[in-house]
Amino acid sequence: MLERQAWLDRVLKKNHEIGLLQINQPRPDPDATFAPTFGKDASFNWSGLEDPELFDLVERARKTADRAQRRALYVQAQRRILESNAYGFLFTRPIADIVRKTVTGLKTEVHGPWRLHEVRLTG
Fold it and tell me: Which residues contact 100 (CB under 8 A, 6 or more apart)?
């Protein structure tokens, strides 16, 4: 058990045995998850994963406009990540926004956050 800042310092220096993180989903484009976490110079590659083939898949996917090709590349990347055992995905949490009937205008961004500028209370 570590205080958050001590833990974060170790994680950023890749001086740890295991860590937990969350990735908020959905995201409008897989690149928003893959590039910062699994790309060559990924700022969120906290595991220190060094996998040139994975880096290449991510880079090729982000440069490809064809949806079918991108999908195939991201599927390959996912398989490679799972086979590396560098990451273990524990669960996916369902997204449910529950509000009173007196709340109107609640909308969300594609990637989840609420857009509150149109919310009104009625009644």
Answer: none
**In terms of residue numbers, what domain contains 55?**
4-84
Q: Is residue 99 part of a domain?
A: no
Sign of the CA dihedral running 41, 44, 28, 84: positive
- Into how many domains does the chain fold? 1
Per-residue pLDDT of the chain (123 residues; tens, 9 = 90+): 789 899 888 888 888 877 776 666 667 788 988 999 899 988 888 788 899 999 999 999 999 999 999 999 999 999 999 898 888 777 777 767 778 889 999 888 876 778 888 999 987
Angstrom distance (rounded) from CA 43 to CA 45: 6
Let me know if residue 111 belongs to a domain: no
Q: Is residue 21 part of a domain?
A: yes
Kindly state the helix (H) or strand (E) to which residue 120 belongs, with its residue range.
strand 120-121
With respect to residue 18, please indicate whether it lies within any of the assigned structural domains.
yes
